[in-house]
């Protein structure tokens, strides 16, 4: 879909649909909404008067003017002005876009939500508006599935009346396109069936992203992992016929500066291995590479945005399957660091492949390491699908992540870390066990990964309950969410400004 910014009155913009907005409780529309209301003979005011539109968040109404430059007008509710945020801009933009795109609309014009009466930064509002629209427009084109045959809108016009804000709006729209495209790439990677989204396919995708986004890409093969002593990653991979891959994407935006590593779990299908999962719902375990998808996609955006920071993206990719060669409970394997791990459950495989991945990142000079993974079901028990988990040994890095997440409209809850939790994964036959306790499972799962980092500041993002969604609300669509992609991008940009 083509996106462009124009400086003009929305009333003069030819489009199949116009999108305007209204805060909850407003009875006399102002700004662009007021201008449209006046041009339509007070129809918006009439809706308010009749109680048919209140401005409640994500509420929409559609008008069909007889004599205007648009075939229909969508009014979207922004909710209460006192609770207005950039995330509500995204949600409102997405909800309005979905309504505007119904029928035969090919060209949609929208004002920037929140930059007027809302009083928020015009650049940030423009970015959030375009993110909401592009994320709401996402569709996964499944092979062999009949579609409704309706073409997607071909053009989105962002209309800004104030010339003093135009440059800021253009910057925001440009950045919003990059971040939304990255998030949608992560969604597609997660939505792709596991027989197509193999470790080899993920590596090929990373190589393509690197070629298009000013990145260097190195793919480590099984022989490379053997030479480096990555017994944990290789141990998980030994049950599958698919060859494992370790993806390393490098962005050098600040030569001589520190390197920050983003490390993703890329289990392209997780059966649980010998400790096999229940069959009900196992088809959803194609999403166990969502952390790796977020890292690859974030690196795509970072390469295009060009922040002054060095970012290393590492993704460990393999399947976790049962076979005659698969890991067994009770086995002991050796990590790249020389530490040994007793296998209690082969379904606790994410921390194993991440053990070698974070160790590799540190060996490449990373002084800050953030891993992102669909690591535990326990995080969903603790937080539901409202927050992802955050486990870290460094409060300064936690603050960076929390700030970035707030800007990106994603939620992480900082879980406690204490030495007493280490007692839960002690082993009598190895350096540590890969799990085996029920209480504190989300915390110990993350802490086990930290045991393979020597000096770097570390944080772990557990996105297991956020990687896929069943809701269609705001800019959300059913399926892969691309969660954490925008936060990782924002982390890179914020670190570049320090």
In short:
With 498 residues, this protein is of the alpha/beta class.
Class inferred from helices and paired strands = alpha/beta
Number of strands: 19
What would CATH call the homologous superfamily of the largest domain? Zn peptidases
Identify the quaternary structure here. single chain
Distance between the termini: 35 Å
Average pLDDT taken over every residue:
96
Work out the helicity level: 25-40%
Unreliable segments of 5+ consecutive residues:
none
Walk me through the structure:
The chain is an alpha/beta fold and about 500 residues long. The protein folds into two domains: about 1-160, Leucine Aminopeptidase, subunit E, domain 1; about 185-495, Zn peptidases (Aminopeptidase, 3-Layer(aba) Sandwich). The protein has helices at about 30-40, 45-50, 85-100, 120-135, 165-190, 200-210, 220-230, 230-235, 290-305, 350-365, 380-385, 395-410, 440-450, 485-495; strands at about 1-5, 15-20, 60-65, 70-75, 105-110, 155-160, 215-220, 245-250, 260-270, 310-320, 330-335, 340, 365-375, 390, 410-415, 430-435, 455-460, 470, 480. The chain has an eight-stranded mixed sheet with strand order 7-8-10-9-13-17-14-15, sandwiched between helices. Strands 1-6-5-2-4-3 form a six-stranded mixed sheet, with helices on both faces. The two termini are about 35 Å apart. The mean pLDDT is about 95.
Keywords:
alpha/beta, Aminopeptidase, eight-stranded mixed sheet, six-stranded mixed sheet
């Amino acid at each position: 879909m083509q996106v462009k910014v124009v400086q003009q009155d929305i009333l003069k913009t030819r489009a199949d649909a116009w999108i305007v907005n209204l805060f909850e409780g407003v009875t006399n529309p102002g700004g662009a909404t007021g201008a449209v209301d006046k041009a339509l003979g007070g129809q918006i005011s009439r809706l308010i008067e009749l109680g048919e539109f209140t401005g409640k968040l994500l509420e929409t109404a559609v008008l069909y003017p007889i004599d205007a430059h648009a075939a229909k007008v969508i009014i979207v509710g922004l909710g209460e002005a006192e609770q207005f945020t950039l995330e509500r801009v995204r949600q409102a933009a997405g909800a309005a876009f979905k309504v505007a795109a119904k029928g035969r609309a090919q060209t949609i014009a929208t004002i920037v939500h929140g930059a007027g009466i809302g009083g928020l930064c015009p650049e940030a509002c423009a970015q959030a508006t375009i993110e909401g629209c592009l994320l709401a427009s996402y569709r996964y084109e499944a092979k062999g599935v009949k579609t409704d045959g309706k073409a997607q809108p071909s053009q989105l016009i962002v209309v800004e009346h104030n010339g003093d804000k135009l440059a800021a709006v253009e910057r925001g729209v440009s950045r919003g396109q990059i971040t939304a495209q990255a998030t949608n790439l992560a969604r597609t990677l997660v939505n792709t069936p596991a027989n197509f989204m193999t470790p080899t396919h993920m590596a090929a995708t990373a190589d393509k992203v690197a070629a298009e986004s000013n990145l260097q890409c190195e793919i480590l093969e099984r022989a490379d992992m053997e030479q480096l002593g990555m017994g944990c990653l290789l141990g998980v991979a030994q049950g599958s016929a698919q060859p494992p891959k370790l993806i390393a994407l490098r962005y050098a935006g600040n030569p001589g500066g520190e390197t920050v590593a983003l490390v993703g779990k890329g289990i392209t299908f997780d059966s649980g291995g010998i400790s096999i999962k229940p069959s009900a719902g196992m088809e959803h375990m194609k999403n166990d590479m969502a952390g790796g998808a977020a890292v690859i996609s974030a690196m795509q955006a970072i390469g295009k945005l060009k922040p002054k920071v060095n970012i290393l993206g590492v993704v460990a990719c393999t399947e976790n399957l049962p076979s005659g060669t698969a890991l067994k409970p009770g086995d002991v394997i050796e990590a790249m660091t020389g530490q040994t791990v007793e296998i209690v459950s082969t379904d606790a495989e994410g921390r194993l492949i991440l053990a070698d991945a974070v160790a590799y990142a540190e060996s490449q000079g990373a002084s800050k390491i953030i891993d992102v993974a669909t690591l535990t079901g326990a995080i969903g028990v603790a937080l539901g699908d409202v927050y992802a988990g955050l486990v870290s040994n460094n409060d300064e890095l936690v603050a960076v992540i929390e700030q970035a997440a707030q800007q990106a409209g994603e939620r992480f809850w900082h879980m406690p870390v204490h030495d007493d939790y280490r007692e839960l994964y002690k082993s009598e036959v190895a350096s540590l066990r890969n799990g085996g306790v029920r209480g504190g499972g989300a915390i110990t799962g993350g802490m086990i990964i930290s045991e393979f980092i020597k000096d770097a500041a570390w944080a772990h993002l557990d996105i297991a309950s956020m990687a896929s969604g069943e809701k269609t609300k705001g800019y959300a669509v059913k399926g892969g969410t691309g969660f954490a992609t925008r936060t990782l991008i924002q982390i890179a940009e914020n670190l570049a400004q320090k």
